Amino acid sequence: MNNSHVRIFDTTLRDGEQSPGATMSSSEKLEIARGLARLGVDIIEAGFPAASPDDLEAVRRIAIEVGNALPGDDRPPPVICGLARANQSDIDAAWEAVRHAARPRIHTFLATSPIHMRYKLRMDPEEVVERVREMVAYARSLCADVEFSPEDAGRSDPEFLYLVLGEAIKAGATTLNIPDTVGYTTPEEFGALISGIIAHTPGIENAIVSVHCHDDLGLATANALAGLRAGARQVEVTINGIGERAGNTSLEEIVMALHTRRQAYELETNIDTTQIARMSRMVSNYTGIPVQPNKAIVGANAFAHEAGIHQDGMLKNHQTYEIMRPETVGLSRSRLVLGKHSGRHALKAHLEEMGYSLSSDELNRAFERFKELADKKKTITDADLEALMEDQAYSSEEVYSLDGLQVACGTMGMPTATVRLRGPDGKLHIHAAVGTGPVDATYKAIDAVMNVKNTLLEFNVHAVTEGIDAIGEVTVRLQAENGQQSRRTSPQSDVARARTFGGYGADTDIIVASAKAYLSALNKMLLSAGRHAGAAEVRAPGVMEAVGEQ
Ligand code: KIV
Ligand code: ZN
């Protein structure tokens, strides 16, 4: 491999999924993994398989479906990686999940900073070295590609790191990842740490050095770039920078920094930058975590020019105020000249061009929805189709689905919503409720049927494209009530926390989109609590405004 190549290791599905509210269903994870493969990432960290049987299964599905070459595709499939703490059962779970991929990887980690060894692990440095030796060797006995991370390396003694990393290499580690777990270091310190590791770790020439930075001080991208400049050739990133606390280094920032400032870094990646905007939207919609408008590269304002003097400059020459073209990150998506008379074949061909490969059932559903949309909207863009496909992916894992919705609202009376939901038993459940507005009334009526106690933390609406007939997208974030805690173990802690769930819905009617978003988050909650069987039977007594069931 040429030495100016930087491997992009995407951990959106693992560290990204550790962000509060980012819980994704396994079909959403699979869709994201497919998107990451299209984007051209080298390694996908697909999850933490020891967290729960569902997590293991989601990683296994990705290993099978994304980690193997598709017929006719001559690019190598991405490496599929599973995270494991440094113990045998986690490593066994990771191997069980990734072994179906053509290029599997096990990533194991153990903390090396004095504070973590003493208070979290309660282990002596010698015990840590011994455990690393044993567990890296064990992982290597199962898998030829093993990554080791000394957790909290940013606050570890560099001399101790040289020793631990040297032992990891001897035991068979092929990639050494250096995490600034708590986002504490400065770019100068982190660059020097990587240079020191490269200069002093025995056997380092046989391994790839990787960097993994967190954004607690807003330095994650700067630190990762300093690490690359010092000689690291893998960088661990997430889409939109989501991740624990303030998040991780964001993929789009690293890729576009290397791309736009090629002469400054002289490094390159395999990323197809035109897929960036689409991945950003997909991850935001699936996690329910909106992208801040001023976020570099993918924020709504990243390419907007407001000041008159800037607009004037742009009209004269876009380079006056623009260092990258929006098309480079996939922002100006083509108008699709498919209309209500277009056939299934044309839709299939266009979706394939956009990277969606659908089964015939999925195509039938997509076509039906495309026709409905074409009846309401004159021009359908790629962005509309993406919204439609994302909405479809959401509704594929439904416990309750929206069968009908009617609202009455305005200045003359009480906002009232009637919802008809199809339940897990196949029956239709109809309820009506009054609220402070049409969305509130709709959510109350849905609550009356599903009885999943929750608090609405966030509600966002935005239009996919310009124009009054635009599709509206709604994302919500809900917190489970009644003590529903995480049933999963997180890599860094066994402490259960109240879970939050994101939901997404798209429709030309924003009340319908709002209902779909709410339902999708509630469905995730039900599925995660294993409550869907018979959920209809646990409806709270005395719910108001119940008008009947069929
Ligand atoms: O931040 C961190 O230390 C991690 C490790 C598991 C690599 O995410
Ligand atoms: Zn991390």
Count of helical segments?
17
Runs in which pLDDT lies below 50 for 5 or more consecutive residues are 531-550
At CATH level 3, the topology of the largest domain is TIM Barrel
CATH class of the largest domain: Alpha Beta
Rough outline: globular
For the residues shown, what is the average pLDDT?
88
CATH homologous superfamily grouping of the largest domain: Aldolase class I
Distance between the termini: 64 Å
Q: How many strands, what sense, and barrel or not for the largest sheet?
A: 8 strands, parallel, barrel
Total beta strand runs: 17
Supply the helix-strand structural class.
Answer: alpha/beta
What proportion strand? Answer: 15-25%
Binned, the helix content reads: 25-40%
